[in-house]
Design goal:
It contains three helices and three strands; from the N terminus they run H-E-E-E-H-H. The chain has 109 residues and is α+β, with helices and mostly antiparallel strands. The protein has a domain at 7-79. The protein has a three-stranded antiparallel β-sheet. The mean pLDDT is 82.
Length: 109
């Protein structure tokens, strides 16, 4: 089992990762795996209950920020130019056939 992580260590890691995006003033810290209450500064609708461990492993816990990030990534993907193809695929008629093999697409005589 790893060494226990103190409140100061958690806050230092959280601020290094998320800067000033979350408000940690209402935390009652017990352990790294016990849920705490944080608040997103961009969407202060309600408190977010998340373990300090998951908060540092994920995008933070604010479902509104997560939704905005997903929309932004989808818009970026839709606006992206299609990748260049190295060569065009050959047409069906250009495909090589084995000599003497019957073609399933042509009627047999």
């Amino acid at each position: 089992m790893g060494s226990p992580i103190s409140l100061e260590t958690f806050l230092a890691r959280a601020r290094a990762r998320f800067a000033d995006q979350y408000d940690y003033s209402s935390i009652v810290y017990k352990s790294f795996k016990t849920p705490v209450a944080i608040r997103c500064r961009l969407h202060p609708v309600k408190l977010i209950s998340i373990t300090p461990e998951k908060h540092l492993q994920t995008t933070g816990g604010c479902k509104f920020c997560l939704r905005q990030n997903r929309i932004r990534m989808l818009e970026r993907e839709l606006l992206r130019e299609p990748a260049e193809r190295p060569c065009a695929l050959p047409e069906r008629s250009e495909l090589s056939r084995a000599p003497g093999a019957a073609n399933a697409w042509e009627p047999q005589s």
